[in-house]
Design a protein that fits this description.
Strand order of the largest sheet: 2-5-3
Distance between the termini: 177 Å
Radius of gyration: 56 Å
Oligomer: single chain
Number of strands: 5
Mean pLDDT: 78
Number of helices: 3
Length: about 200
């Protein structure tokens, strides 16, 4: 059979033929690259670029160090308080021992006076008076002098009025009689003297 030559396709044979608008490659549209972040002239990130956030572990470490310092300070303060309490109690014990030791000779002399009371009853009075004087001397050495003066002006800081009497020989407001001696002065006063005072006219 005779063959007829086929006519060439115009779209293939004509390289200058225009592709209709909207027509693309058979495999679809390719993705287009997005916009790049702005950069400064020297290549560094621009002002609109996000700055890196501070590391949380740095803040955590700083907080832990502060907490450790706070706990150590509390522990040091508690140890100081306990040490001060121990030292104060030790000083009190030493002072009590010193005071008690100062009165041991007084007790020894009382024992001697009682021992010799049977042999010479009249000597017991002198012995007790001597022991009393020794005890007063011990108190004075400890800083608590005895006050039993009469004829002196009444002093509310050193005297306690337990009675008011009429005495023509004593000026008004003076101590007539001491019923109980006082010991100490000012802030170191053990007790005031109990006295009777002359009445004012």
């Amino acid at each position: 059979m005779p063959t007829h030559p086929q006519e060439p396709d115009p779209a293939v044979s004509d390289p200058g033929a225009r592709v209709p608008e909207g027509a693309g490659p058979a495999h679809g549209n390719l993705p287009q690259p997005g916009p790049h972040p702005p950069e400064a002239a020297n290549g560094e990130p621009g002002p609109d670029a996000a700055s890196p956030a501070p590391a949380e572990d740095e803040y955590t470490t700083a907080i832990q160090e502060l907490e450790d310092r706070w706990r150590r300070a509390l522990a040091d303060l508690d140890n100081l308080r306990k040490r001060h309490a121990r030292e104060l109690e030790r000083e009190r014990a030493v002072e009590r021992s010193r005071t008690a030791a100062a009165f041991l000779p007084v007790l020894d002399n009382l024992e001697l006076a009682l021992t010799h009371a049977g042999a010479d009853p009249g000597a017991i009075v002198e012995g007790i008076r001597a022991v009393r004087d020794q005890a007063v001397n011990v108190l004075e050495l400890l800083g608590y002098p005895r006050h039993a003066e009469t004829g002196v002006a009444f002093d509310p800081a050193r005297h306690e009025v337990v009675g008011v009497v009429q005495d023509s020989d004593a000026p008004p407001g003076t101590v007539v009689e001491v019923l109980r001696p006082g010991y100490g002065d000012g802030e170191r006063q053990l007790r005031p003297a109990a006295v009777t005072v002359a009445k004012r006219e």
